[in-house]
Design goal:
By secondary structure, this protein is α+β, with helices and mostly antiparallel strands. Helices cover 22% and strands 19% of the residues. It is elongated and about 75 Å long.
Amino acid sequence: MTPNRVGQHLGNYRLLRFLGRGSFGDVYLGEHEHEHTMAAVKVVQARLTAEDLKEFINETSVTFRLKHPNIAQLLDFGVSADGTPFLVMAYAANGTLRQRHLKGTRLPLEMIVSYVKQVAAALQYAHDKRLIHRDVKPENILLGPNNEVWLSDFGIASVAHSSRSLNTERSGGTVPYMAPEQIQGKPRPASDQYALGIIAYEWLCGERPFTGTAIEIAMQHALTPPPSLRGKGPTISVEVEQVVMTALAKDPKQRFASVQSFATALEQARGAAQRPFSAGRLPVPVQPVSSQPPPPVVSQNLSALIPTLPPSQEVPIAHFSPTAFTPTGRPERDTLSSKPNSAPPPSRPTQQPATPIPSKPPSRRTGLSRYKVVFLIVLVLLIVGSAGLLYNSVSTYNTHVQATATALAPIRAYETFVAAHGIMFGVDATHTRSNPYEHILSPATVSGLTQGWTYPAVGSISTDPVVANGIIYFGSLDKSLYALDARSHSIRWNFQTGGAVESTPAVVNGVVYVGSYDHSVYALDARTGRKLWSFATGDRIFSSPAVAGGVVYVGSYDHSLYALDAQTGHKLWSFATGNSIYSSPAVANGVVYVGSDDGRLYTFHLK
């Protein structure tokens, strides 16, 4: 029995009423204490260890980077006083697509294409940023105020499944949509395409292709071809069926090159199905539709499909790690580009050409008799069923990155310069990354570097360490800015902001300037950590401040570049670009330079 939290406060939100219960926890309608805006507060119901909580902070903070019209905006996150993680998301008053279209409902093809296009646009945007959702299902597709599609729950699966076993009740909303490679612990972008293909299949004929217990469904994903769509709905065209079946290929290499290509192909198939037949358009040959389900496809190596059970028997069914993934082995069709900004802006997605659809299903392997196949499958089910769990051996992103900044005693000239100017070369206003005062390390000595001390693990560290006046400054995703003594390695102070700190701090004249996910720029006393002032922008700050001539320059996720008075924090000037600003501005010779996510480099100078 989960506690009723109505009336409680989580972060800056007061919980007004209970909205519903999902696979991972309870959802409440919350009101911001100061802004009086409404949001959906999801309380994750899972028993988490201290390591799980750190992972929750690290992984969830990454989802703040996602800003797309078809992705539910994550507004805040945190951990309650009793250790329960929670997330604050934009409130979707129109509910989910599962609530709008109950199980067993068949949807018109036009509506299915509209939904698939919007979900695919959100997934393609995430894939272009090297992120995989891993839990695409109707329950996670929300409807915005204008009935636009919002894909939600990026970052929740890894935490929610951390202490859950695989059983039919808990996995009913996830296992039926999991790709074979994801069940084997090797998710990739094509796994999200497979899940969207299962959803399209369900909407077309009113039922999912595979049913049974969680173990049985997992085995069917790996071994059994989906039943013919045309056998369940004769009005479904050959073209539409072939598109969906391509997305549901067992081998991810045989699916579409991208999820956007899948959506484009489905839209083209809808148009082909609506056009009258003519001599110039010959029908695509397909296998005859049979009322009997096709026999299972035998894997070349059946033992590879049998998951290994860990000693603890406590395993997740899916592990989301919304972090950069590195493809292994030879390149595959769904391998992502190493350039994160190579994709067009989300507001104007480029339609990719559809991958050609195979004219006939791939040939089936033979060599094992029907009785041997049945015997092997039964043996697998007995082995796995006796344990009662299915192990998903997902290699997750290492969320416990430790600070490894090595403190070497600087020479007198360097100390003299820093004492006079209070900055570290490299993170100055021009971002030259040059330190002419370093004479200990050189090409002749650098090969002798060995690891020195490390600071105890905090949240994941994405900022650059900044060294000034014998103090090391760095931010963390645990919402803190840290100051360590470079010689004693002890902590001088840490300052807690209202959000993760991925902005590299700038240290000038005894003041530390840094941005936070809580939308604010802070000015802190470099020696004590005391707050001198703060300035609130319209959104999160990844950009690192540049300070020159008594002015602080910093970019914000609200698309704007700001110029603030370094002493008071008052806004002196701002400029709105075409998209979010991750870039750290540089100032040199009276010119300010900054990049924007709209693909442009901006320069500003006096008239």
